[in-house]
Amino acid sequence: MQIHVFTGGPAYTHGYLLSAPERGEAVLVDAPENVWDAIAPVLDEQKCRLAELWITHGHWDHTQGAAEVVRRTGAKVRAHRADQPLIETPGVMGALLPRGMEIEPVKVDAWMAQGDRFEALGEQVEVRHVPGHCPGNILFWFPAQKMAAVGDALFAGSIGRTDLPGGSMRELDHSIRTQIYTLPDDTRVFPGHGDDTTVGEEKKTNPYVRE
């Protein structure tokens, strides 16, 4: 499995294209602004079909390009039901959007929950619910690849904001300790913003949630 990182939108949000050229398939984790323009050449070059779009949480900077991706590819959308209003009726975020910005709604095909397991790109994937930044924030863990896409729950040396609607520092602290820091230390953590890191590094050095 190959990991391609694309960054877009005013919040410099990451979208992760996970591709398996030998299978002719790919998955996109989160969809920042104009992500389709970035991933389309890679899909063409690798002769991959985008099978699914996984939304780590419903904040606008992670879904801004989702509608176009789904229109172009028919990708199956996965997300957590707690963020259904943000994803399917994004107008509820109106007060949080930059002036003049509109977000198109996206229909979710499969609602993910804590402990769900499924197969993608020939790999086993586990879902963990990590609320605190956003009620429906989930991570996608590939045990064999030793990697997890965590949305905005945890960053390299930082954590997600908890001052937005639905945020809670107490809840986020609990999520990180019980759902992220319990992953193997050598798990690579791919966040929604900034550099990737590892579970072990954050447990030792993160100033906000240290084991």
TrEMBL record:
<protein>
    <submittedName>
        <fullName>MBL fold metallo-hydrolase</fullName>
    </submittedName>
</protein>
<feature type="domain" description="Metallo-beta-lactamase">
    <location>
        <begin position="12"/>
        <end position="193"/>
    </location>
</feature>
<keyword id="KW-0862">Zinc</keyword>
<dbReference type="InterPro" id="IPR036866">
    <property type="entry name" value="RibonucZ/Hydroxyglut_hydro"/>
</dbReference>
<dbReference type="GO" id="GO:0046872">
    <property type="term" value="F:metal ion binding"/>
</dbReference>
<feature type="region of interest" description="Disordered">
    <location>
        <begin position="191"/>
        <end position="211"/>
    </location>
</feature>
<dbReference type="InterPro" id="IPR001279">
    <property type="entry name" value="Metallo-B-lactamas"/>
</dbReference>
<keyword id="KW-0378">Hydrolase</keyword>
<keyword id="KW-0479">Metal-binding</keyword>
<dbReference type="Pfam" id="PF00753">
    <property type="entry name" value="Lactamase_B"/>
</dbReference>
<dbReference type="InterPro" id="IPR051453">
    <property type="entry name" value="MBL_Glyoxalase_II"/>
</dbReference>
<dbReference type="GO" id="GO:0016787">
    <property type="term" value="F:hydrolase activity"/>
</dbReference>
